[in-house]
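Morning. Coffee machine broken again, so started the prediction first thing and wrote up yesterday's gels while waiting. Chain of 384 residues, entered below exactly as on the submission form.
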Amino acid sequence: MIILARPSVSPYLSKTLFELGEPAILAEDIKVPMKPALRLEPAQVIVDRPKQAYQSLILTSSENALAFLQEAIPHDDRVLKARLFKDKVAFRRSLAKIYPEFYFKETTVAELPRLDPASLRFPLVIKPAAGISSIGVRRVERAAEWQDAIEFLTRDLATYAQNYAGVVVDGHKVILEEWIPGIELAVDCYFDAAAEPVILNVMEHMFKDAADTSDLVYYTRRSLVRRHYKAIHDFLVRLGDLFDLKRFPMHLELRLTPHGQLLPIEVNPLRFAGLGTTEIAEYAYAINVYKHFFRETRPDWDAILAEPDDSVYTFLCTDVPTERYHAAGLRIDDRALWKSFGEVLEYRMLDESETSTFAVIFLRSDDLEENRRLLDTDLTRFMQ
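Came back before lunch.
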């Protein structure tokens, strides 16, 4: 079964659920494409029939569904592990068994101004102990930037956290952790009933510079997957052994250091990459990640990676503080934005009342030049 929750459900996901006949539960009142054609069940079903839930595969469309699951089936092993993964402090403590030298510190929003920056190890990252979409995340290079980082986190939480449940974005507890240099990889995967990891998607999260923490550009291509597949698989085996993971989907963020070590940034449990990001796998490799999970199958990566095509498939997340521009009577010029790209595979508009992301855009290109240009694009110039 899948639990549907804010901020959005993609048309692609709805179509897949229709084709599979997979039951869906609405954790809250949201807009769902193809709603009359889907096998929707009332939320009370999972409460009244917990045994059915325990025996079912469980996926969510958004981490907002985690609050519902923690209320409905709090003792399900997957829900208990999801709670641990969402608590970045608890997650880091657990990882200390395999990464004993990794520096992190737990604190609170209220305590931040009282911390002596001279006692901290820079560069570091400051972020909510539970979070999503880079809300409140800031890289702090040196002690002189500490006060600005505190103000940014406080302001960002106030601006964006209202769109997410407390279990998804923690407005109280904060974690400080060492900055991990290197490229960031985003992986959608699941652990099957035999505790074997199944990789469904591998993307690189591109940044403008070392200070950038935005979720603007993700891409995948065959050479990227070929280069990192084995290391990611080996890491997942270790992660699965450490946490005893079975029948467990996740979106994983990793950093590959200049020394070739893969270090986990966070595990986003019981979901794949948000706002439809994961669906780039369909365009790039004809992989439907939802179907593979619910049918308990795995992509034929040997055949996929043997193909000569090395096109770049990109997911662009157009995130701007839309409420500020709406207050000024401004709206996004979607036509002008569309025309600014090369090959558009899909331009998917979102409900701006639910998220600050006004559209997600899938692109194809021959190389990474357009992606580098996109990292320097000021999206606010398309407001009119």
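The radius of gyration is 20 Å. Going to sketch it on the whiteboard this afternoon.
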